[in-house]
Design a protein that fits this description.
11 helices, 26-stranded mixed β-sheet, single chain
């Protein structure tokens, strides 16, 4: 992750085409890529610095920079009984917005309608199956407490409601580039966010290694990809909400009127009918006919031997490296990433579920237990999670396996490396740091890990970028020292990790949260599914045990498919497979 960058961030707005053109190919809209260099100001003033616009390589390039968006606001309307009535209200409000243009040169406006019914946002997203719009989904490990303002008579009331998950279709504005995520990119995103609009968030992911070559299957994500959803469905405890967002910037040649036009087109594509089950499909419809591991078992054993030789040498600082495996699964039927995500969510207690799918790209989905960090105002927390054992079939066996994990010297070393590294990073950034518990068991439905929680207080909110850039990559997904481990990973692994093991989550005005993108897969029409898993290698590691750990971690996906053959087929370990 870069602290500064000479190149500019690409900000994307979707422009609607000529509505008199009946060519069906035009229904997707035209995506203009606009680069601009944002100033480092975090002010919310309406003033914007002067900027010049030029065409370079077919893209509009902003050579100057803007400050914060001119206006950032959320408008809440009366509660609706159903999603259909909420959608009708949004249509009506958009017409009002269209007839009353904003006088600000730039801004972002969210209009939201609470819904009396409790509807799962993933069910809403799965019901939108006739669209090619970019989409996102994020569910935290536990509900977040959101302050929501609404009017009661002549009084404005603020209530706190527990947000469970968010699903989005289309992007009011998105952010992407091929170079590593930088402080300037963070400012580019933050200019559209505000403490007064807690649900305007930028959801997305960052590559594990922003300096490595991007393979074709990850091209749509770039080095990072974030989107502020254009149409959003929020699941709360006991209720729901539907929202629409417009973003504009006249200096970036995307006007208020254009933003309204694109939103109108997107709303016409939204289905108000939410179905729990779609056309009788289940996640197990796909039959697994082949599985190709990169590396294969022989190459894996060789890689572990080489890593252990480096770790045990006196002249190298390397203490730990995390080596991963990519498994391409080939099936008889196309895999629906949202169907897989639904199944993962059903057993994903105390885990994050996510799905990010840029335009014309595969979907990156995951069910990760590991938090990278959570920020609420100046309070920040992270955790150390390392070492893995399966859960026991009985309570007695589960306790025995957990005790073995707690007392294992090899696992204690792996865990301590992770915890102390995060502690040092927190102490550099925070005014105070607390580690509690310092070592315990974190039990998940299928596996259990060693766990510690770290909390701290930031000196200023701009330190959020420092937290992100210093914590990623953690020793739990890379190794220690980080640069030595990263170089060994680059030299050893013959596939592109992409967003696997990178930060996944959202930036908000007063709250941000990121998980570590492990237990994840890339699912698309042209690639089938690529399953990713990794394991920490320290002195005392055994390649056979580590391979079994990989199998355990990917089993949450392989169990979703019917098996035609009794065993997976491994492939020659070549780059690009």
């Amino acid at each position: 992750m870069a602290a500064a960058a000479a190149n500019c961030c690409i900000i994307r707005f979707l422009h609607n085409n000529n509505k008199n053109n009946n060519n069906n190919n035009n229904n997707k809209g035209l995506l203009y890529s606009i680069k601009f260099r944002c100033s480092s100001s975090s002010s919310s003033s309406a003033a914007a610095a002067a900027a010049s616009v030029a065409m370079k390589n077919g893209e509009l390039v902003m050579e100057g920079g803007n400050g914060s968006a001119g206006t950032t606001e959320t408008r809440t309307f009366p509660m609706a009984a159903t999603p259909a009535l909420a959608a009708d209200c949004l249509h009506s409000v958009v017409l009002d917005l269209k007839s009353s243009p904003s006088h600000f040169q730039s801004g972002i406006i969210r209009i939201q309608v609470p819904i009396r019914q409790h509807i799962e946002s993933l069910d809403w997203l799965r019901s939108q199956n006739d669209t090619v719009l970019p989409r996102c989904y994020f569910s935290g490990r536990e509900p977040s407490n959101i302050p929501l303002k609404h009017c009661s008579g002549e009084n404005e009331i603020t209530e706190r409601r527990k947000l469970v998950s968010v699903a989005g279709l289309g992007s009011a504005v998105s952010f992407r580039h091929l170079r590593p995520f930088s402080l300037q990119d963070w400012h580019s995103i933050k200019r559209f966010l505000s403490k007064n609009s807690p649900l305007i968030r930028a959801y997305g992911a960052i590559r594990f290694d922003g300096t490595s070559t991007i393979s074709p299957e990850w091209k749509g994500f770039g080095s990072f990809y974030f989107m502020i959803p254009q149409v959003e469905f929020d699941e709360f405890e006991g209720s729901s909400m539907m929202a629409a967002t417009i973003a504009w910037d006249n200096h970036l040649l995307h006007t208020y009127e254009q933003a309204i036009g694109v939103l109108e087109d997107t709303l016409l594509q939204i289905s108000s009918v939410v179905r729990k089950k779609l056309n009788g499909k289940t996640s197990t419809d796909a039959v697994l006919v082949n599985q190709i591991h990169v590396p294969n078992r022989v190459s894996w054993d060789s890689a572990i031997r080489n890593a252990l030789e480096l770790i045990t040498r006196k002249d190298t600082p390397l203490l730990k490296v995390v080596l991963a495996r990519s498994s391409r699964v080939l099936t008889t039927a196309e895999i629906d990433p949202l169907e897989w995500l639904r199944s993962l969510k059903a057993e994903g207690d105390k885990a994050y579920q996510f799905c990010f799918q840029p335009p014309d790209s595969a979907a990156f989905i995951g069910n990760t237990p590991e938090r990278l960090f959570h920020r609420d105002e100046l309070s920040v927390s992270s955790e150390a999670l390392a070492a893995t054992r399966r859960r026991g079939a009985t309570e007695a066996l589960d306790l025995k396996i957990g005790y073995d994990l707690l007392t294992s010297k090899k696992d204690h070393l792996e865990f301590t490396v992770v915890r102390e590294n995060i502690r040092r990073k927190f102490e550099e950034i925070c005014s105070r740091t607390i580690v509690e518990p310092s070592k315990s068991l974190r039990k998940l439905p299928r596996v259990q890990h060693l766990y510690a929680k770290l909390t701290g207080t930031l000196k200023q909110e701009d330190d959020e970028f420092r937290v992100l850039s210093s914590l990623h990559p953690t020793p739990a997904v890379c190794g220690l020292p980080a640069e030595d481990a990263r170089q060994l990973i680059a030299d050893t692994e013959m596939f592109d990790r992409g967003m696997y093991a990178g930060p996944v989550g959202y930036f908000g005005g007063s709250e941000s949260e990121f998980a570590v993108g492990i237990r994840s897969a890339l699912v698309g029409k042209d690639i089938g599914a690529l399953l990713y898993a990794g394991t920490g290698i320290v002195e005392g590691s055994d390649s056979s045990m580590e391979w079994r750990e990989l199998e355990l971690k990917t089993s949450q996906y392989t169990k979703l498919m019917k098996h035609l053959t009794p065993a997976p087929v491994s492939a020659v370990n070549k780059k690009g497979l």
